[in-house]
């Protein structure tokens, strides 16, 4: 059973078909990349998968369970987390608070217990703090924990988004152009980080434009163009696929 | 100099009253701001929540609680009635948002604001049906007791105990509120939803619930304002007009800004009281609204707000 199964999903906005009868499977433990030219429907796909838009038709299953009708926060509870192409950290919360609010979906104590500060609540708070510390350490932002998140430089805000998504304890992490706006060095660090995420047993669905990043980290690459899947294979095979080369990489082949 | 020295105790007296009204406006303005930050609409029924809070307290809970507790229980019946009013306001806030906001949440903000206007009209008329057309008087904790103190030998300042109580109560409430927003899980989640609703939802926060709680909290604040005002004013449908003063406070402070709401409230309260005593009590409302119009024309982002481009 695939972790995520997308079956014949179509997403229309008025007359525009952003995703056209797309099917794919994301297997557990792999880094699965989705690439395509600008406007190919990649971000729309993430929005459909995470429940921001309801698909016009088709179905999405997560661990074998249909999730099409679920709200975004319910999908997070099942184990899907994401980052955003256009940064969406909570600007006036501190770095630590950004990660902390994302941990709350894994807490169980209710209002009454919290008001009374029972022993279970105190234990749970300690657990939240540990998880938050761990997530911040994981992306290397532990020393910036007290900073207002809007004061972080751009590349670090991207890392904060990853830490925040990790704090929801996902099984599947959807990264929407995590490398956008990063320098070459930062991008290399990002590649290492994505592999470390996978090594923790978290499946990664990665969208990006940076070919070198995609080709070095991915196990499987799905190529979309005008909302349709035109190829799906290993990075090496995809690079040689004539249709991919024509549609996406340009007639002269791969440029990095 | 003699004239100034003579006037000073009177000015201080007026200012204490002004700041007390200002606290009330600030509490109501905070309600506007929390709802504005969470869902981007102005809840035009916020002032009527003050009235409902006042009625729940003065006309419903105080008589009932006083009869439970028997005579000579003014203190405990005040606090019990206050607590019951807060619980009642949670229900009012939750139910109203479910009917007035939730079904329209995907619509244009203007549509939702019209819907809150309908709620405002409904509440005013509901109050007539439920509590009648006669204003209700209540004594609160202190009744008409006066608080006197000497001002550096210049004269005696005399103010209602209730004014002092309003100042102290509001200050404590704000300290508790600030701890709530910075320390508790619910408070932080509310801030996250206010800053980016979609991102919050995608980080696993149950946004519809948090929005409902935000409405409930805004209506508690309005209800508390109603309880604090009830002993000074009579409780009547006219209490809803507090909403307009609080709206002015929000504009003056900068819509959506928490500190702005309070500073705006204190300013509006002081301007109102001082213009009543030094210009004309007939025109005090007019003067407040001139301030509102002046801010809308000259500094629409308010004292603490950021410039916003675009309009509803």
Task: Briefly characterize the structure.
The complex is a heterodimer of chains A (256) and B (312). Chain A is 40% helix and 23% strand.
Structure description:
The complex is a heterodimer of chains A (256) and B (312). By secondary structure, chain A is an alpha/beta fold. Chain A has two domains: 1-79 and 170-256, P-loop containing nucleotide triphosphate hydrolases (Rossmann fold, 3-Layer(aba) Sandwich), CATH 3.40.50.300; 89-169, no CATH class. Chain A is 40% helix and 23% strand. The mean pLDDT of chain A is 90. In chain A, strands 6-7-8-3-9-10 form a six-stranded mixed β-sheet, sandwiched between helices. In chain A, strands 2-1-4-5 form a four-stranded antiparallel β-sheet, with helices on one face. Chain A is built from ten helices and ten strands. Chain A has helices at 42-50, 72-78, 95-103, 111-116, 119-139, 154-167, 184-199, 211-217, 235-240, 242-249; strands at residues 4-13, 16-26, 31-35, 57-62, 65-66, 80-82, 172-176, 203-207, 220-225, 228-233. Chain A is globular, with a radius of gyration of 19 Å. Chain B is mainly alpha-helical and 312 residues long. Chain B has one domain (15-298): Orthogonal Bundle (ABC transporter involved in vitamin B12 uptake, BtuC). Chain B has helices at 2-39, 46-69, 74-101, 109-131, 161-183, 185-195, 197-202, 207-229, 242-253, 258-278, 284-298; strands at residues 146-150, 156-160. In chain B, strands 1-2 form a two-stranded antiparallel ribbon. In chain B, a hairpin with a 5-residue loop joins β1 (146-150) and β2 (156-160). In chain B, α2 packs antiparallel against α3 (74-101). The model of chain B has no long low-confidence stretch (mean pLDDT 90). Classes of the chains: A alpha/beta (256), B mainly alpha (312). The interface between A and B is medium-sized, with 30 and 20 residues.
């Amino acid at each position: 059973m695939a972790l995520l199964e997308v079956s014949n999903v179509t997403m229309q906005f008025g007359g525009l078909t952003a995703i056209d009868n797309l099917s794919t499977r994301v297997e557990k433990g792999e880094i699965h990349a989705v690439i395509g030219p600008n406007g190919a429907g990649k971000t729309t796909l993430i929005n459909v998968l995470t429940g921001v838009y309801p698909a016009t038709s088709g179905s999405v299953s997560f661990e074998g369970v249909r999730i099409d009708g679920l709200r975004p926060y319910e999908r997070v509870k099942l184990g899907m987390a994401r980052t955003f192409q256009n940064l969406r950290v909570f600007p006036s919360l501190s770095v630590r608070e950004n990660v902390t609010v994302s941990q709350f979906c894994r807490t169980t104590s209710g209002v009454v217990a919290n008001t009374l500060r029972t022993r279970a609540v105190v234990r749970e708070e300690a657990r939240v703090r540990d998880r938050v510390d761990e997530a911040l350490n994981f992306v290397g932002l532990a020393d910036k924990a007290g900073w207002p998140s809007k004061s972080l430089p751009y590349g670090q805000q991207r890392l904060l988004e990853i830490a925040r998504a990790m704090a929801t304890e996902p099984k599947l992490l959807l990264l929407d152009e995590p490398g956008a706006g990063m320098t070459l060095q930062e991008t290399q660090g990002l590649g290492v980080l994505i592999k470390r995420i996978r090594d923790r047993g978290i499946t990664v669905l990665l969208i990006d434009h940076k070919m070198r990043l995609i080709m070095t980290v991915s196990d499987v690459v799905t190529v979309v163009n005008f909302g349709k899947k035109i190829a799906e294979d290993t990075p090496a095979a995809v690079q040689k696929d004539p249709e991919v080369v024509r549609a996406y990489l340009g007639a002269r082949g791969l440029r990095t | 100099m003699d004239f100034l020295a003579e006037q000073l105790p009177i000015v201080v007296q007026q200012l204490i009253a002004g700041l007390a009204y200002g606290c009330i406006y600030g509490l109501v303005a905070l309600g506007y701001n929390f709802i504005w930050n969470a869902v981007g609409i102005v809840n035009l029924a916020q002032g009527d929540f003050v009235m409902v809070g006042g009625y729940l307290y003065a006309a419903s809970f105080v008589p009932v609680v006083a009869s439970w507790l028997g005579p000579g229980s003014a203190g405990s019946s005040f606090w019990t009635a206050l607590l019951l009013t807060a619980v009642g306001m949670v229900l009012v806030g939750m139910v109203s948002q479910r009917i007035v906001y939730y079904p329209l949440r995907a619509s244009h903000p203007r549509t939702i604001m019209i819907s809150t206007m309908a709620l405002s009209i409904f509440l005013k008329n509901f109050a007539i049906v439920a509590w009648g057309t006669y204003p209700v008087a209540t004594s609160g904790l202190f009744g008409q007791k006066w608080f006197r103190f000497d001002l550096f030998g210049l004269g005696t300042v005399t103010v209602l105990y209730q004014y002092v109580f309003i100042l102290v109560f509001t200050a404590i409430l704000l300290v508790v509120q600030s701890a709530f927003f910075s320390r508790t899980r619910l408070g932080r989640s509310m801030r996250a939803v206010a800053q980016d609703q979609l991102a919050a939802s995608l980080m696993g926060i149950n946004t519809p619930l948090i929005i409902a709680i935000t409405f409930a909290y805004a209506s508690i604040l309005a209800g508390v304002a109603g309880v604090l005002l009830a002993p000074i004013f009579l409780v009547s449908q006219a209490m809803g007009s507090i909403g307009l003063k609080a709206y002015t406070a929000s504009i003056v402070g900068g819509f959506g800004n928490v500190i702005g709401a309070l500073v705006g409230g204190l300013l509006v309260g002081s301007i109102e009281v001082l213009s009543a005593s030094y210009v004309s009590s007939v025109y005090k409302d007019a003067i407040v609204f001139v301030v509102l119009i002046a801010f809308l024309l000259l500094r629409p982002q308010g004292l603490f707000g950021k410039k916003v481009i675009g309009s509803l």
